[in-house]
Amino acid sequence: MKPDILERINGARAAKRRVALVRFLESHEQALVVEGETVSGSLGGDALAEVETALRQDRSRAVVLAAGRAFIQIFNPPLRLAIIGAVHISQALVEMAKLAGYEVTVIDPRGAFATSERFPGTHLDSDWPDEAMERFDPDRRSAIVALTHDPKLDDPALDVALRSEAFYIAALGSRRTHAGRRERLAALGHGEDRIARIHGPAGLDIGAVSPAEIAISVMAEMTAELRRSRA
């Protein structure tokens, strides 16, 4: 890989921008696409369409283009998950998400809960959720799950999440609890369409009871949303 292309790839990933490198197998030419814009080399319309598909599906692929055979290599930023609340469900969900390739941040200002002993090797943020979420800066490759059952902690995080392009937003609680949550978020200026993005109660309805089972249901629903958005 050419040094200038490598530098551009690293810069784009740091800026959380989607990147694809197209390598033509016969001519050995290369073209770099960042967020749908060709920033190095040249590509035809058929190539750009294939690049957009590969970026959306988050999958590198070999293709046959009008200009010849090529390999589209994806360098997307990592998937990220912000969990609000360092609770028992979070402990299981953190490990599952890491196995699925997510960078995980646990946000909880309660020092007794958010400890390295309970969450080894996990980034912990002890600031108030709205401040921590602003710093987390969710994008289209981000998921946010609120698990505290405490409106003082969950609502500020959801407020920031709803103003973002996060592909998955969820909150734990009964339907009655979620109805109250919807009212509070509406009072913060969120419309019905935006509030409807929240999966509440969080997780697929699989009859989960234990913290680990609930984490499985959340991880399954999050995966379904991720793949649906990339179909």
General description of the model:
- This protein has helices at about 5-15, 45-55, 90-100, 130-135, 150-160, 175-185, 190-195, 210-230; strands at about 20-25, 30-35, 35-40, 60-65, 70-75, 80-85, 105, 125, 140-145, 170, 200.
- It is an alpha/beta fold.
- The protein folds into two domains: about 5-75, no CATH class; about 80-230, Rossmann fold (3-Layer(aba) Sandwich).
- The protein has a six-stranded parallel beta sheet, sandwiched between helices. A five-stranded antiparallel beta sheet has the order 3-2-1-5-4, with helices on both faces.
- Strand 1 (about 20-25) and strand 2 (about 30-35) form a beta hairpin.
- The longest helix has 19 residues, at about 210-230.
**How do the SSEs run, as a string of H and E?**
HEEEHEEEHEEHEHEHHEH
The CATH topology name of the largest domain reads: Rossmann fold
Number of domains: 2
Inertia-based shape: elongated
